[in-house]
Amino acid sequence: MHSEIFATLAALRQKQPVIHNITNQVVTNSTANALLAIGASPVMAHAPEEMADMVSIASALVINTGTPCETQRTSIRKAIKAAREQGKPWILDPVGAGATPYRLQLNSELLELQPAAIRGNASEILTLLTGEPTGRGVDTDSSSDDALNETLNYLQERASQLNTVLAVTGATDYIIDGQRVAKITNGHPMMAKVTGTGCTATAITGAFMASSEDPWLAVTASIACLGIAGEKAAFIAKGPGSLQMHLLDELYQLDAETIQARLSLEILC
């Protein structure tokens, strides 16, 4: 898979897609910088009045519900409507989907609007798909291994029904569509100590999806590349603060040789 993953990364860098992000207030700067480092061009626009225009210049739309409010809810709906009309993929990050009834309702509404991909931790994904809170919020009490091992058939069925790709991320990452499952064990525990690492994964997933005709491969490549970059960054970082800096550098420098040497990926089916 390493050659396919690098080819997808190379296509992204050649295309330099504009990615429109409606994201949370905590991660705007870090996700924008990660998109620039990987080779994309970020737009971080939230005003309802310009949603259709922003989507028209973008190649993909990323929706992150980490700090929801009614104004953002209006912007999200307008942006998704424009993306669907223009045939552009949109990606959902249901941050803390089960933390409050408001978040659960919002994310459930968005699920009905057919995201091309959904990335979250195990609790967020299971809450979104079942409509029943299964975790505290951004932090998860259900590992991605548990989510896959106990509910693989269910997750595959739901991915097929929704015509989407599920990225269940954690210590181990699983990328699931109706037919294929990839297991990725790249990454480093220190990444969990940096706010917004998961949000970064979702943002760059938008860039990969804008550059590939295979959504499952795009999501797989995105999660693998971030994990590899995180491993390398953690090796030289002294703590979470310097990890953020080195992660951007490693995303920028990621090449075919590094992917071949470090990729830890298994195709389960």
Automatic annotation (TrEMBL):
Pfam families: HK. Its cofactor is Mg(2+). It is an enzyme of class 2 (transferase). It catalyses: 5-(2-hydroxyethyl)-4-methylthiazole + ATP = 4-methyl-5-(2-phosphooxyethyl)-thiazole + ADP + H(+). SUPFAM superfamilies: Ribokinase-like. It comes from the Bacteria. Pathway: Cofactor biosynthesis; thiamine diphosphate biosynthesis; 4-methyl-5-(2-phosphoethyl)-thiazole from 5-(2-hydroxyethyl)-4-methylthiazole: step 1/1. GO terms for molecular function: hydroxyethylthiazole kinase activity. The keyword Kinase applies. Substrate binds at M44, G196. The keyword Membrane does not apply. Keywords: ATP-binding, Kinase, Magnesium, Metal-binding, Nucleotide-binding, Thiamine biosynthesis, Transferase. Its EC number is 2.7.1.50. ATP binds at R119, T169. Catalyzes the phosphorylation of the hydroxyl group of 4-methyl-5-beta-hydroxyethylthiazole (THZ). Belongs to the Thz kinase family. This is Hydroxyethylthiazole kinase. It comes from Endozoicomonas lisbonensis. The gene is thiM.
